[in-house]
Amino acid sequence: MSGPRVALRWVRPGFRLEVDLALPDRCLTALTGPSGSGKTTLLRCIAGLERADGRVEFRGDVWQAEDRFLPPHRRSVGYVFQEASLFDHLDVAGNLRFALKRARRRPPLLDFAQAVALFELAPLLSRRPATLSGGERQRVALARTLLVAPEWLLMDEPLASLDAQRKRDILPFLERLQARFALPVLYVSHDLDEIARLADHLVVLDRGQVVAQGAPADLAARLDLVGALGEEPAGLVEGRVADRDGRWHLLRVNFAGGSLWVRDGGQALGERVRLRVLARDVSVALSPATDSSILNRFPARVEAFADDVHPALVLLRLRAGQEGEGAPFLARLTRRSLHALGLRAGRTVWAQVKSAAVLE
Question: pTM of the predicted model, to two decimals?
Fold first, then answer.
Protein backbone atom coordinates (compact mmCIF):
# COMPACT_ATOMS: atom_id res chain seq x y z
CA MET A 1 0.00 0.00 0.00
CA SER A 2 1.43 3.37 -1.00
CA GLY A 3 2.05 5.87 1.73
CA PRO A 4 1.15 9.57 1.98
CA ARG A 5 2.43 11.92 -0.71
CA VAL A 6 2.84 15.64 -0.02
CA ALA A 7 3.99 18.29 -2.50
CA LEU A 8 3.19 21.71 -1.04
CA ARG A 9 4.27 25.32 -1.39
CA TRP A 10 3.28 27.83 1.28
CA VAL A 11 4.61 31.39 1.05
CA ARG A 12 4.26 34.23 3.53
CA PRO A 13 6.32 37.43 3.95
CA GLY A 14 9.79 36.38 5.07
CA PHE A 15 9.19 32.63 4.86
CA ARG A 16 8.71 29.98 2.19
CA LEU A 17 7.81 26.33 2.83
CA GLU A 18 8.36 24.08 -0.18
CA VAL A 19 8.39 20.31 0.29
CA ASP A 20 7.96 17.23 -1.88
CA LEU A 21 7.71 14.05 0.21
CA ALA A 22 6.68 10.46 -0.40
CA LEU A 23 6.38 9.01 3.10
CA PRO A 24 6.44 5.33 4.06
CA ASP A 25 3.12 3.82 5.06
CA ARG A 26 2.28 2.15 8.38
CA CYS A 27 5.26 3.51 10.29
CA LEU A 28 6.22 6.50 12.38
CA THR A 29 8.02 9.26 10.50
CA ALA A 30 9.68 11.85 12.72
CA LEU A 31 9.93 15.41 11.46
CA THR A 32 12.68 17.51 13.03
CA GLY A 33 14.72 20.61 12.41
CA PRO A 34 15.54 23.99 13.95
CA SER A 35 12.82 26.22 15.39
CA GLY A 36 11.12 28.16 12.63
CA SER A 37 11.94 25.61 9.92
CA GLY A 38 8.26 25.03 9.09
CA LYS A 39 7.41 21.78 10.90
CA THR A 40 4.11 22.88 12.45
CA THR A 41 3.12 24.75 9.29
CA LEU A 42 3.61 21.57 7.27
CA LEU A 43 1.35 19.58 9.61
CA ARG A 44 -1.32 22.28 9.47
CA CYS A 45 -1.19 22.31 5.67
CA ILE A 46 -1.57 18.52 5.54
CA ALA A 47 -4.56 18.71 7.89
CA GLY A 48 -6.15 21.48 5.80
CA LEU A 49 -5.89 24.04 8.59
CA GLU A 50 -3.64 26.20 6.39
CA ARG A 51 -4.20 26.79 2.70
CA ALA A 52 -1.16 25.98 0.59
CA ASP A 53 -0.55 25.43 -3.11
CA GLY A 54 0.17 21.91 -4.23
CA ARG A 55 -1.04 18.36 -3.79
CA VAL A 56 -1.79 16.01 -0.87
CA GLU A 57 -2.56 12.35 -1.53
CA PHE A 58 -3.29 9.62 0.96
CA ARG A 59 -3.40 6.00 -0.21
CA GLY A 60 -4.65 7.02 -3.62
CA ASP A 61 -7.22 9.55 -2.36
CA VAL A 62 -6.57 13.14 -3.42
CA TRP A 63 -7.18 15.53 -0.54
CA GLN A 64 -5.80 18.54 -2.30
CA ALA A 65 -4.91 19.43 -5.90
CA GLU A 66 -5.11 22.38 -8.25
CA ASP A 67 -8.92 22.14 -8.48
CA ARG A 68 -9.65 20.34 -5.21
CA PHE A 69 -9.38 21.17 -1.51
CA LEU A 70 -10.97 18.98 1.13
CA PRO A 71 -11.71 20.84 4.39
CA PRO A 72 -10.18 19.47 7.60
CA HIS A 73 -13.28 17.51 8.66
CA ARG A 74 -13.15 15.52 5.39
CA ARG A 75 -9.47 14.59 5.74
CA SER A 76 -9.08 11.42 7.74
CA VAL A 77 -6.41 12.75 10.08
CA GLY A 78 -6.05 12.77 13.83
CA TYR A 79 -4.13 15.78 15.16
CA VAL A 80 -2.45 15.66 18.58
CA PHE A 81 -1.21 19.08 19.69
CA GLN A 82 1.57 20.02 22.09
CA GLU A 83 -1.07 21.04 24.62
CA ALA A 84 -3.91 18.55 24.94
CA SER A 85 -7.03 20.32 23.61
CA LEU A 86 -9.71 18.74 25.77
CA PHE A 87 -13.21 20.05 26.45
CA ASP A 88 -12.99 21.50 29.96
CA HIS A 89 -16.78 21.32 30.50
CA LEU A 90 -16.76 17.55 29.98
CA ASP A 91 -15.21 14.88 32.16
CA VAL A 92 -12.77 12.37 30.64
CA ALA A 93 -15.56 9.95 29.73
CA GLY A 94 -17.45 12.76 28.01
CA ASN A 95 -14.39 13.76 26.01
CA LEU A 96 -13.99 10.18 24.79
CA ARG A 97 -17.67 9.74 23.90
CA PHE A 98 -17.61 12.97 21.90
CA ALA A 99 -14.88 11.45 19.73
CA LEU A 100 -16.95 8.28 19.20
CA LYS A 101 -19.83 10.38 17.81
CA ARG A 102 -17.48 11.91 15.23
CA ALA A 103 -16.29 8.45 14.15
CA ARG A 104 -19.66 6.92 13.31
CA ARG A 105 -19.11 7.17 9.55
CA ARG A 106 -15.84 5.22 9.67
CA PRO A 107 -14.90 1.77 10.95
CA PRO A 108 -13.57 2.21 14.50
CA LEU A 109 -9.98 1.42 15.42
CA LEU A 110 -11.11 0.55 18.93
CA ASP A 111 -14.18 0.98 21.13
CA PHE A 112 -14.62 2.95 24.35
CA ALA A 113 -13.58 0.10 26.66
CA GLN A 114 -10.52 -0.71 24.55
CA ALA A 115 -9.38 2.92 24.57
CA VAL A 116 -9.79 3.12 28.34
CA ALA A 117 -7.78 -0.07 28.80
CA LEU A 118 -5.05 0.82 26.30
CA PHE A 119 -4.30 4.18 27.92
CA GLU A 120 -5.13 3.13 31.51
CA LEU A 121 -7.85 5.75 31.92
CA ALA A 122 -10.34 3.94 34.18
CA PRO A 123 -9.39 5.92 37.34
CA LEU A 124 -9.74 9.20 35.42
CA LEU A 125 -13.12 8.81 33.71
CA SER A 126 -15.11 10.99 36.12
CA ARG A 127 -12.49 13.74 36.40
CA ARG A 128 -12.44 17.06 34.54
CA PRO A 129 -9.39 18.02 32.44
CA ALA A 130 -8.43 20.83 34.84
CA THR A 131 -7.72 18.25 37.55
CA LEU A 132 -5.41 16.11 35.40
CA SER A 133 -1.63 16.22 35.21
CA GLY A 134 0.04 17.01 31.89
CA GLY A 135 0.79 13.36 31.24
CA GLU A 136 -2.77 12.30 32.07
CA ARG A 137 -4.17 14.95 29.72
CA GLN A 138 -2.02 13.71 26.87
CA ARG A 139 -3.13 10.12 27.45
CA VAL A 140 -6.74 11.26 27.21
CA ALA A 141 -5.93 13.30 24.09
CA LEU A 142 -4.30 10.27 22.44
CA ALA A 143 -7.26 8.02 23.29
CA ARG A 144 -9.74 10.61 22.02
CA THR A 145 -7.83 11.02 18.77
CA LEU A 146 -7.82 7.27 18.11
CA LEU A 147 -11.55 7.03 18.82
CA VAL A 148 -12.15 9.42 15.91
CA ALA A 149 -10.73 6.56 13.76
CA PRO A 150 -8.09 8.53 11.82
CA GLU A 151 -6.19 6.96 8.97
CA TRP A 152 -3.20 9.28 9.38
CA LEU A 153 -1.98 10.56 12.75
CA LEU A 154 -0.25 13.96 13.00
CA MET A 155 1.52 14.72 16.29
CA ASP A 156 3.02 18.15 16.95
CA GLU A 157 5.59 17.84 19.78
CA PRO A 158 3.08 16.05 22.04
CA LEU A 159 5.63 15.64 24.85
CA ALA A 160 7.33 19.04 24.68
CA SER A 161 5.38 20.54 27.60
CA LEU A 162 6.04 17.56 29.90
CA ASP A 163 8.90 17.09 32.34
CA ALA A 164 11.33 14.20 31.96
CA GLN A 165 9.38 11.80 34.19
CA ARG A 166 6.07 12.50 32.44
CA LYS A 167 7.76 11.91 29.08
CA ARG A 168 8.99 8.53 30.31
CA ASP A 169 5.43 7.74 31.40
CA ILE A 170 3.92 8.58 28.00
CA LEU A 171 6.51 7.03 25.66
CA PRO A 172 5.37 3.42 26.28
CA PHE A 173 1.83 4.41 25.26
CA LEU A 174 3.14 5.86 21.99
CA GLU A 175 5.11 2.67 21.32
CA ARG A 176 2.05 0.58 22.13
CA LEU A 177 -0.07 2.68 19.80
CA GLN A 178 2.26 2.19 16.84
CA ALA A 179 2.75 -1.52 17.47
CA ARG A 180 -0.99 -2.18 17.69
CA PHE A 181 -2.46 -0.02 14.92
CA ALA A 182 0.44 0.42 12.45
CA LEU A 183 -0.95 3.81 11.44
CA PRO A 184 1.20 6.17 9.43
CA VAL A 185 2.30 8.82 11.93
CA LEU A 186 4.02 12.14 11.25
CA TYR A 187 5.63 13.10 14.56
CA VAL A 188 7.26 16.49 15.13
CA SER A 189 9.99 16.57 17.79
CA HIS A 190 13.27 18.26 18.68
CA ASP A 191 14.22 15.45 21.05
CA LEU A 192 16.64 12.95 19.49
CA ASP A 193 15.92 10.41 22.25
CA GLU A 194 12.21 10.45 21.35
CA ILE A 195 13.03 10.17 17.66
CA ALA A 196 15.50 7.35 18.20
CA ARG A 197 13.07 5.40 20.34
CA LEU A 198 9.95 5.84 18.21
CA ALA A 199 10.83 6.61 14.59
CA ASP A 200 11.28 4.24 11.67
CA HIS A 201 11.93 7.11 9.25
CA LEU A 202 13.29 10.62 9.79
CA VAL A 203 12.81 13.84 7.81
CA VAL A 204 14.97 16.89 8.55
CA LEU A 205 13.51 20.26 7.67
CA ASP A 206 15.48 23.52 7.56
CA ARG A 207 14.28 26.93 6.37
CA GLY A 208 11.23 25.39 4.78
CA GLN A 209 13.17 22.79 2.79
CA VAL A 210 13.72 19.06 3.27
CA VAL A 211 17.49 18.70 3.69
CA ALA A 212 17.61 14.97 4.46
CA GLN A 213 15.47 11.90 5.07
CA GLY A 214 16.14 8.27 5.82
CA ALA A 215 16.80 5.84 8.68
CA PRO A 216 17.37 7.69 12.01
CA ALA A 217 20.66 5.86 12.68
CA ASP A 218 22.08 6.84 9.30
CA LEU A 219 21.09 10.49 9.60
CA ALA A 220 22.31 10.83 13.20
CA ALA A 221 25.84 9.92 12.07
CA ARG A 222 25.92 12.45 9.22
CA LEU A 223 28.38 15.18 10.09
CA ASP A 224 26.54 17.78 8.00
CA LEU A 225 23.35 17.28 10.08
CA VAL A 226 24.84 17.49 13.57
CA GLY A 227 23.49 20.99 14.24
CA ALA A 228 20.03 20.15 12.91
CA LEU A 229 19.64 17.11 15.18
CA GLY A 230 20.31 18.73 18.53
CA GLU A 231 23.10 20.28 20.55
CA GLU A 232 24.69 16.99 21.65
CA PRO A 233 26.06 14.91 18.75
CA ALA A 234 25.33 11.22 19.17
CA GLY A 235 25.22 7.99 17.24
CA LEU A 236 22.18 5.72 17.21
CA VAL A 237 22.86 1.99 17.14
CA GLU A 238 20.43 -0.87 16.48
CA GLY A 239 21.27 -4.11 18.26
CA ARG A 240 20.01 -7.17 20.12
CA VAL A 241 20.53 -8.27 23.71
CA ALA A 242 23.00 -11.16 23.56
CA ASP A 243 24.05 -11.77 27.16
CA ARG A 244 23.28 -10.79 30.77
CA ASP A 245 25.84 -10.40 33.54
CA GLY A 246 23.74 -10.72 36.68
CA ARG A 247 26.64 -10.09 39.03
CA TRP A 248 27.40 -6.65 37.59
CA HIS A 249 23.87 -5.80 36.37
CA LEU A 250 24.95 -5.43 32.75
CA LEU A 251 23.67 -6.47 29.33
CA ARG A 252 25.78 -7.18 26.27
CA VAL A 253 24.22 -5.79 23.11
CA ASN A 254 25.47 -7.07 19.77
CA PHE A 255 25.36 -4.74 16.78
CA ALA A 256 26.83 -4.80 13.28
CA GLY A 257 30.61 -4.74 13.80
CA GLY A 258 30.84 -5.19 17.58
CA SER A 259 29.12 -5.24 20.95
CA LEU A 260 28.63 -2.99 23.98
CA TRP A 261 28.05 -3.65 27.67
CA VAL A 262 25.25 -1.42 28.99
CA ARG A 263 23.20 -1.12 32.17
CA ASP A 264 20.63 -3.89 32.61
CA GLY A 265 17.16 -2.43 32.18
CA GLY A 266 15.38 -5.76 32.26
CA GLN A 267 15.31 -6.39 28.51
CA ALA A 268 14.98 -10.02 27.44
CA LEU A 269 17.71 -11.97 25.69
CA GLY A 270 17.23 -11.59 21.95
CA GLU A 271 15.22 -8.39 22.33
CA ARG A 272 15.88 -5.67 19.78
CA VAL A 273 17.05 -2.40 21.33
CA ARG A 274 18.29 1.00 20.24
CA LEU A 275 21.29 2.63 21.88
CA ARG A 276 22.29 6.27 22.01
CA VAL A 277 26.04 6.82 22.19
CA LEU A 278 27.18 10.41 22.76
CA ALA A 279 30.16 11.56 20.71
CA ARG A 280 31.79 12.88 23.88
CA ASP A 281 31.77 9.32 25.28
CA VAL A 282 33.68 7.84 22.34
CA SER A 283 37.48 7.96 22.10
CA VAL A 284 39.87 6.24 19.71
CA ALA A 285 43.17 4.41 20.06
CA LEU A 286 45.58 2.82 17.63
CA SER A 287 45.73 -0.43 19.60
CA PRO A 288 43.33 -2.16 22.03
CA ALA A 289 44.00 -1.09 25.62
CA THR A 290 43.67 -3.83 28.23
CA ASP A 291 44.39 -1.81 31.37
CA SER A 292 41.60 0.75 31.15
CA SER A 293 38.31 1.24 32.96
CA ILE A 294 36.65 1.46 29.55
CA LEU A 295 35.43 -2.08 28.81
CA ASN A 296 33.71 -1.36 25.50
CA ARG A 297 36.28 -1.63 22.70
CA PHE A 298 35.90 -2.67 19.08
CA PRO A 299 37.73 -2.08 15.80
CA ALA A 300 36.38 0.68 13.56
CA ARG A 301 37.35 2.60 10.48
CA VAL A 302 37.55 6.40 10.25
CA GLU A 303 35.16 7.59 7.52
CA ALA A 304 35.31 11.38 7.78
CA PHE A 305 35.80 14.27 10.16
CA ALA A 306 34.41 17.79 10.49
CA ASP A 307 34.69 20.96 12.56
CA ASP A 308 33.01 20.92 15.95
CA VAL A 309 31.60 23.69 18.15
CA HIS A 310 35.05 24.96 19.18
CA PRO A 311 38.21 25.23 17.04
CA ALA A 312 40.04 22.95 19.49
CA LEU A 313 37.60 20.09 18.77
CA VAL A 314 36.78 17.85 15.84
CA LEU A 315 34.05 15.27 15.17
CA LEU A 316 34.89 11.90 13.60
CA ARG A 317 32.47 9.55 11.94
CA LEU A 318 33.44 5.92 12.49
CA ARG A 319 32.13 2.63 11.12
CA ALA A 320 32.39 -0.35 13.42
CA GLY A 321 34.22 -3.45 12.23
CA GLN A 322 37.69 -4.21 10.94
CA GLU A 323 36.58 -3.38 7.40
CA GLY A 324 34.30 -0.53 8.42
CA GLU A 325 31.17 -2.44 7.45
CA GLY A 326 29.19 -2.01 10.68
CA ALA A 327 27.17 0.51 12.65
CA PRO A 328 28.00 4.25 12.48
CA PHE A 329 29.37 6.15 15.50
CA LEU A 330 30.47 9.72 16.19
CA ALA A 331 33.53 10.58 18.29
CA ARG A 332 34.62 13.95 19.66
CA LEU A 333 38.39 14.51 19.85
CA THR A 334 40.73 17.44 20.21
CA ARG A 335 42.55 18.48 17.07
CA ARG A 336 45.76 17.86 18.95
CA SER A 337 44.80 14.20 19.41
CA LEU A 338 43.79 13.94 15.76
CA HIS A 339 47.22 15.20 14.74
CA ALA A 340 49.15 13.12 17.30
CA LEU A 341 47.47 9.88 16.22
CA GLY A 342 47.81 10.67 12.52
CA LEU A 343 44.13 9.94 11.93
CA ARG A 344 42.78 10.12 8.40
CA ALA A 345 39.83 8.77 6.44
CA GLY A 346 40.21 5.04 5.85
CA ARG A 347 42.43 4.33 8.86
CA THR A 348 41.50 1.45 11.16
CA VAL A 349 41.40 2.32 14.87
CA TRP A 350 39.99 0.97 18.12
CA ALA A 351 36.84 2.75 19.28
CA GLN A 352 36.43 3.03 23.05
CA VAL A 353 32.95 3.74 24.38
CA LYS A 354 32.70 5.02 27.94
CA SER A 355 28.91 4.65 28.19
CA ALA A 356 25.85 3.99 26.09
CA ALA A 357 22.16 4.36 26.93
CA VAL A 358 19.42 1.95 25.99
CA LEU A 359 16.48 4.03 24.80
CA GLU A 360 13.60 2.77 26.93
Answer: 0.88
Q: Give the separation between CA 286 and CA 321, rounded to whole angstroms.
A: 14
Q: What CA–CA distances, in Å, run from 77 to 42, 100, 103, 192, 328?
A: 14, 15, 12, 25, 36
Own/partner contacts of 174-182, CB < 8 Å, gap of 24 or more, are 174/142, 174/198, 176/118, 177/118, 177/142, 177/146, 178/27, 178/28, 180/118, 181/109, 181/146, 182/26, 182/27
Which ranges constitute the DSSP H helices of the chain? 39-47, 92-102, 112-118, 134-147, 164-181, 192-198, 216-220, 335-341
- Residue 85 has phi, psi (to 5 degrees) of -95, 80
Note the pLDDT of residue 55: 95
Strand-strand pairing, 152-156 and 185-188: parallel
Run of H or E including 80: strand 77-80
Task: Classify residue 289 by its DSSP letter.
Answer: -
What pLDDT was estimated at residue 31? 96
Taking residues 319-338, report their average pLDDT.
Answer: 94
Residue 36 sits at the vertex; the CA angle it makes with 227 and 274, to the nearest 5 degrees, is 45
pLDDT tens digits along 207-239: 999 999 999 999 999 999 987 787 789 999 999
41 pLDDT higher than 90: yes
Give the CA count within 13 Å in the CB-facing half-sphere of 342.
3
Count of positions (residues) in the chain = 360
For residue 31, give the H/E element and its range: strand 28-32
